[in-house]
């Protein structure tokens, strides 16, 4: 005999609330009211004959039994979603949205300029790109593909490295017209551009270049890496440029690397894909496309 299923809308509301840890967040995700989520959860509790959440004033906490229940039904929801997406994409029945999350500087300087090529190959796909520097395990929303530095290991995710990177000083050609840079010691006449989230880049490179005691003419610190690179493009000073993200600028002559060495090692860019989406044909296609773009 077929096993009876609980009310599916109630099950969906429970899964969303349990996964997000909030009735309010579940309501926003499902495009219903907070009261509707609460009502669906109560209906499921009545159907199961046991509470799912412990109510503590304004917050709710899963019971131990409900945590075990979520661990079993959560992957089932992911499997249904992936199967539906694959059917819609392969059969041309449904529009497909590919959710990607990556660092802002990487997205702005490397991914976005290349996205038109992917969309030309996959005209029925909409790429929804969000930027964030949060660790993979700290992201609240679910994504098909997360791009971060690595290689790292996260439970429930498969990882593939696709783009290597190193860092070295770069500046605009116009800057060198009136302030030449023949040796690292010549940086004493320049403005060194810093990024607040990467405070050791210059000190590490200067130590490697053998000028650890160097005092530049001045410094300028910006809060995002892409702002630092833009300041270098505008001739304001010299930045520590990530080779993968400035390759186009170097090739076109918008930026110049006055010193071929030393190169400062950096983490590679990697894709982190939820294990439930590893076989998704579109996820595989996007990751393969990233690797092809990186190889060129």
UniProtKB/TrEMBL annotation:
GO terms for molecular function: DNA-binding transcription factor activity; sequence-specific DNA binding. InterPro entries: LysR-type_TF_proteobact-type, LysR_HTH_N, LysR_subst-bd, WH-like_DNA-bd_sf, WH_DNA-bd_sf. One of its GO terms (biological process) is DNA-templated transcription. Residues 6-63 form the HTH lysR-type domain. It holds the Pfam family HTH_1. Keywords: DNA-binding, Transcription, Transcription regulation. PANTHER family: HTH-TYPE TRANSCRIPTIONAL REGULATOR (PTHR30537), HTH-TYPE TRANSCRIPTIONAL REGULATOR TRPI (PTHR30537:SF74). Belongs to the LysR transcriptional regulatory family. This is HTH lysR-type domain-containing protein. It comes from Caballeronia sordidicola.
